[in-house]
Design goal:
Blueprint lengths: L1 H69 L1
Length: about 70
């Protein structure tokens, strides 16, 4: 009789451990996903800033050539 109770408890603890492991893996996965998302957003923002700088530089050079042509 005590042996049956022991196995029942073991089954319960293994189920709880599996649940814990599932939650741990899920939370680690979510953290990795959020990290990748943050890196992607930072990369996109850096690309946008580089493009804006290039556009700004092009606008400035165009403006300078226009004024040079006017002079």
């Amino acid at each position: 009789m005590p042996h049956e109770i022991l196995t029942e408890n073991n089954i319960r603890t293994t189920k709880n451990l599996k649940k814990c492991a599932k939650w741990i893996f899920w939370s680690i996965g979510m953290l990795i996903g959020l990290l990748l998302l943050a890196i992607l957003v930072a990369f996109i923002f850096s690309l946008i800033s580089i493009l804006l700088k290039k556009l700004n530089a092009n606008i400035m050079t165009d403006y300078n050539t226009d004024t040079a042509m006017v002079k």
